[in-house]
Amino acid sequence: MDKEKQIYEGKAKKVYSTSDPDCCIVSYKDDATAFDGVKKGTIAGKGQVNNQMSNMLMQLLESEGIPTHFISEQNPRETLVRKVSIIPLEVIIRNVSAGSFAKNYGVDEGIVFDEPTIEFSYKSDELHDPLINEYHAVALKLASKEEIDTIKDLAFRINDILKDFMKKINVDLIDIKLEFGRTSDGTIILADEISPDTCRFWDSTTHEKLDKDRFRRDLGGVEDAYQEMMRRINDQQN
Ligand code: UDP
Description:
- The chain is α+β, with helices and mostly antiparallel strands.
- The protein is 32% helix and 33% strand.
- It has 6 helices and 14 strands.
- The strands form 3 sheets. Strands 8, 9, 10, 11, 12, 13 and 14 form a 7-stranded antiparallel beta sheet that branches. A 5-stranded antiparallel beta sheet has the order 1-2-3-7-6.
- Helix 1 runs parallel beside helix 6.
- The mean pLDDT is 98.
- The site of uridine-5'-diphosphate has 15 residues, from strand 9, helix 2, strand 12 and strand 14.
């Protein structure tokens, strides 16, 4: 299927319509932003890594019964996906303290939780993605109570599957941000991407960061970290 019209451009991706109203094509860019868009840059090869990694992981999730937007990879940077209306919630699951959790609650990074945590941010550039709870999300009519229950169930299952998979490639899944959408018949499916932009990945042995924190925190070796994650996932899948 071919791209028709660009219908959306975000910080890291463009979305195009196709001749099928239930499908669109996502095109991944090398552009990177952090801190609410204040820090901007480019990570060479990121678009291809994020596209291909996300596709591999979504196929793994599909094989475990998780519905996702993935249909088929068109080329190294572009993927045909099911069209959804995105539920404006960032669903964050954490296995280990890091990032805003460590900062907000005054704890070190690297504390392993007994149980994963879940939190929601309201996706709104204007409001700077504020944290909200599920009652607020229902009050704001972002999703119904039933939809929130489905999202929570899917999010924890996705985290379990990916955590187990990452363990096999000597990577700890520290945290992950997920987005869900509704198809035209109202089914909730996983959308967006799963990549070093949206997860924290630490090498299990050295605790080296293999994700976007290398860009956020100017740690160097950004491109290498993305490539290393892709290499490990490819090796495990082949
Ligand atoms: N995250 C994301 N998009 C955002 C905010 C966070 O993909 O707009 C991811 C981030 O990469 C990390 C997880 O969500 O894997 C938790 O991020 P956190 O709340 O700690 O925020 P940050 O430290 O990135 O500000």
